[in-house]
Amino acid sequence: MNGIMLVGSAIIIFFLAYRLYGRWLLKTWGFDPNAKTPAYKYEDGQDFTPASKFTVFSHQFTSITGAGPVTGPIIAAMYGWLPAFLWIIFGGIFFGAVQDFTALYASVKNQGKSMGMLIEQYIGKTGRRLFLLFCWLFSLLVIAAFGDIVANTFNGFAADGTLVTPNAAAASISMLFIFVAVAFGIFTKKVNPSEKLRFVIGIVLLLIMLAVGIAFPIYLDRMSWLYIVFIYIFVAAVMPMWILKQPRDYLSAFLLLAMILGGVVGVLAVNPTINMPAFVGFTVGGKDLFPILFITIACGAVSGFHSLVSSGTSSKTISNEKDMLFVGYGSMLVESVLGVVSLVIVCSAATGGHLPEGTPFQIFSTAVAGFFSLFGMPHDIANCIMTMCVSALALTTLDAVARIGRMSFQELFTVDNTQEMNTVQKICTNKYFSTIITLVFGYLLCLGGYMNIWPLFGAANQLLSALVLISLAVFLKTTGCKGFMLYIPMIVMFCVTLTALVEAVYGIFVKLSAGQFTFTVDGLQLIVAIALMVLAISVALHCGKELINPKEKVKAELNH
């Protein structure tokens, strides 16, 4: 087996899935290209801000494409390339893309409401509160995991104190991205340039930032960057979408798409041989394929976090209902392509059936930088650009989840009549307070390190997917739409993720019995894990009751 076969077949399959299955879903559920979307109905200059098709796609794609599609497939390759490849293909088409698109569809059709508010409308207030609490706890895990990833990526010093220029240059470029994005956002808001002009300006700005960042690297240690990153995501969480988040995601999209294109072209040019067996075994290194494979490969196949982006931010910027398929279904399939490329890279770098040493990011970055070098790009510059791409993956997820975490916390205390809110509710629904409380707890979890958080994050992420799928199934049934395509994914994800969470809790108790338990790390994780399981089961029971005995059909907000 070679790289061209895997990447080429994946691209063809995903293209056909988009054209056939994706369009069938949109046609089955119905859309109105003339309907006034929530972005226009409730435009407020903050969260509800109409944007072009590609701008919304950029936001969706860069927000959901975190470390997962690189990290997951590379780790899961230990079972062989075939299980990972099949899960990315089938998971991406029938699980992840369906979930992302359905969440976006449901939100756009219901005033741009988030998943929590949708659950209240179709399931009840108790289900909504439980789900929002689950989402908020989950957002803490994402902030902790990705905050640590970004800080480590930006760290300009090696363990022995030597300078790490690619990291420092990537940090410099990232800081430039923030300030340039604000200027670009103001420019596009005031001038409203054509899509072509915006594209050209974006490319030029990207090249300038890369050149300046590489020429003037910023050398700071991990903790310094951790503080800076948390300050940034606080600002990003409270600022209007159009002034920072949208333009930054728009510019980042070029970088990430170029990275994927570079990986695909590199595979096509080199046609690497797959040096891993198709299947190694059901148990590798004491880890069972079930449920580890389905937890490890999340963002490349299905990720509950994506639904929060679809319903929390993207739905509030969609300008036309016909764009929903491209944004929701299409962005997930592009991410799945990245997952396949990552899988091919690690399997081609294997020797004697053993995976290469190094972190997933190091393996991926080194390989793609090597591809860029084949086309005449100096290796140092290619390495710096790849480091920047990796940090962009995590940073765009970070600022998105900080905003979603803030909104989830606010919605927990929101009441129908704002005049009846007590003092505590008024404080907790304040966007500045809710952002601070979210980031404080995220920071505390972050101190435990990325590797300690990732297993719990992966299980919680997929459990969120199960909850979202069952909630969306209720929405479809209640509104008279076909929803059978969600039943198998939601059952599979629920079984997989509860199993993984139970194993995670068991592992923490093993540490406790061995005297290796640390409360600030293991204790917090144990509390969060148990809380997530209890909340998940409670939400599932509420949703299950409504799925069996749905309320009367609700069509007030749907445009069929």
Structure explained in plain terms:
The protein has a single domain (3-45, 52-548), classed as Amino acid/polyamine transporter I. The protein is built from 21 helices and two strands. The chain has helices at residues 3-29, 38-41, 53-64, 68-76, 81-108, 115-122, 125-154, 165-191, 195-215, 222-238, 245-270, 289-296, 304-312, 324-348, 360-374, 379-412, 423-428, 431-446, 450-478, 487-513, 519-548; strands at 283-284, 287-288. A two-stranded antiparallel ribbon has the order 1-2. A hairpin with a 2-residue loop joins strand 1 and strand 2 (287-288). Helix 7 (125-154) packs antiparallel against helix 10 (222-238), helix 8 packs across helix 11 and helix 12 (289-296) packs across helix 20. It is globular. The model has no long low-confidence stretch (mean pLDDT 88).
Looking at how many chains there are and whether they match, the oligomeric state comes to single chain
CATH topology: Amino acid/polyamine transporter I
Low-confidence stretches: none
Instruction: Give the CA-based shape.
Output: globular
First CA to last CA: what distance?
47 Å
Number of strands: 2
**Mean pLDDT, all residues:** 88
In CATH, what is the class? Mainly Alpha
Largest sheet composition: 2 strands, antiparallel
Helix content: over 70%
Work out the strand percent.
Answer: under 5%
Task: Return the string of H and E elements.
Answer: HHHHHHHHHHHEEHHHHHHHHHH
The number of helical segments is 21
Structural class: mainly alpha
Radius of gyration: 22 Å
Subcellular location: Cell membrane
Keywords: Cell membrane, Membrane, Transmembrane, Transmembrane helix
Organism: Megamonas hypermegale
Transmembrane segments: 84-108, 129-147, 167-187, 199-219, 225-244, 251-270, 290-311, 332-355, 361-378, 432-453, 459-477, 484-509, 524-543
